[in-house]
Amino acid sequence: MVEQNQATAKEDQMAGTQAREAEATATLAGEPAPSTVATRRGPVEYASFGEGPVVLALHGAMGGYDQGLILAQTIGGPGYRFVSVSRPGYLGTPLSAGRAPEEQADLLAHLLDALGIREAALMAISGGGPSAIHFALRHRDRCWGLVLISTCGEKIDTRLPLLFHLTKLLARWPAFGNMMRRRTARDLERAARRSITDPVLRARTVQDPHTGPLLAALMASTLDRMALRLPGTENDIRVTRATTYPLEQIAVPVLVVHGTADPLVPFTKHAKMLVDRIPGAELLALDGGEHAAIFTHRNEVRLRVTQFLGEHSKTEKR
Q1: Whole-angstrom Cα distance, residue 88 to residue 63?
Q2: What are the pLDDT digits (tens) for 53-111?
Q3: Domain boundaries, the chain
Q4: pLDDT tens track, the chain, 318 positions
Q5: Phi then psi for 183, rounded to 5 degrees?
Q6: Strands, DSSP E only, in 34-166?
Q7: Residue 88, by phi and psi: left (phi above 0), alpha (psi -120 to 50) or beta?
Q8: For residue 62, how far is the Cα from the chain centroid?
Q9: DSSP 8-state class, residue 95
Q10: Which of 289, 286, 296 is CA-nearest to residue 261?
């Protein structure tokens, strides 16, 4: 058994070396490109950029490593190494690598092992929240901070929109995604109507020279390779309708970021519960923000997240 564990650890180390070499090549090319690393739970796709204390970026539904990168670029600041992960069932990470959030938390720990990283903070949005919470619970000695954005505090009971069921049927045809991406590129403000219902707030966000392109990139990525994002999305839906957490046992610094007008993950039921039950948790309530509040309230969120990470990172320990 000992020999088997040593062999597995050696395989993780070798795979991690190959992944770091690919990552260095991507950095020299000027933009982060995805790499896949083998772990004890299975292959994991990730991309990385920046230098400094490590922050894992976890995407939500219909996501992937590309949306984790957008998350980090939207609300992260300089001075950190952001590692964006495709969670199981998304793009290059198979669902078999971890269906339950506890399994996904362990997968993240194995990924850190393979990359030679001792500890990290986690930045998770929406459907990435359960995995991040369980990472803090199961691997607290490796977690130096937790940022939960639009994350559920208990079971989700809101109905799925009809649009999701229609999208699920159409996603098997790439032509549909290509058509929708072209429409989004032509008229971003119209495409964003479902995500940002306030017309003034929507126009301001779309027209912002820095935030608008990030929102456009997120919406375009959701429509790219849709069939490879659906298994993880359907799994996330099952998880968020069944998951409860021992929140009182979380013993790491936590920042909860949530829009007060979020229709998918209601503020009062979820954000307030997280803050009330997690010892010492801090809350950034975004007045009038919906589920896409990191874009509509980007400056406010980025300032607070940067402050939070700065308060709790200890560079000498990385």
Answers
A1: 11
A2: 999 999 999 999 999 999 999 999 999 999 999 999 999 999 999 999 999 999 999 99
A3: 2-159+228-313
A4: 434 444 444 444 444 434 433 433 333 334 689 999 999 999 999 999 999 999 999 999 999 999 999 999 999 999 999 999 999 999 999 999 999 999 999 999 999 999 999 999 999 999 999 999 999 999 999 999 999 999 998 888 777 767 676 777 777 777 777 777 788 888 888 989 989 999 999 999 999 999 999 999 999 999 899 999 999 999 999 999 888 899 999 999 999 999 999 999 999 999 999 999 999 999 999 999 999 999 999 999 999 999 999 999 964 344
A5: -65, -40
A6: 35-39, 42-49, 54-58, 81-85, 120-125, 143-149
A7: beta
A8: 11
A9: G
A10: 289
Which of 280, 285, 284 shows the shortest CA–CA distance to 312? Answer: 280
Letter string b/e over residues 234-264, b meaning 16 or more CB atoms within 10 A of that residue's CB: ebbeebbeebebebeebebbbbbbbbebbeb
- Alpha-carbon distance of 296 to 288, in angstroms, equals 9
Between CA 170 and CA 185 the distance in angstroms is 19
- How far is the CA of 187 from the CAs of 126, 184, 293, in angstroms? 25, 5, 20
Residue 61, CA atoms < 13 Å, CB-side half-sphere:
22
Strands (E), 69-224: 81-85, 120-125, 143-149
Please provide the size of the chain in residues.
Answer: 318
CATH number for the region 2-159+228-313 comes to 3.40.50.1820
Report the distance separating Cα 103 and Cα 93, nearest Å: 13
Beginning with the edge strand found earlier in the chain, give each strand of the sheet holding 120-125 in spatial order.
35-39, 42-49, 81-85, 54-58, 120-125, 143-149, 254-259, 282-286
- Supply the pTM of this predicted model: 0.86
What single-letter amino acid sits at 185? A
**Token representation of residue 130:** 């359960």
pLDDT, tens digit, for every residue of 162-184? 767 677 777 777 777 777 778 88
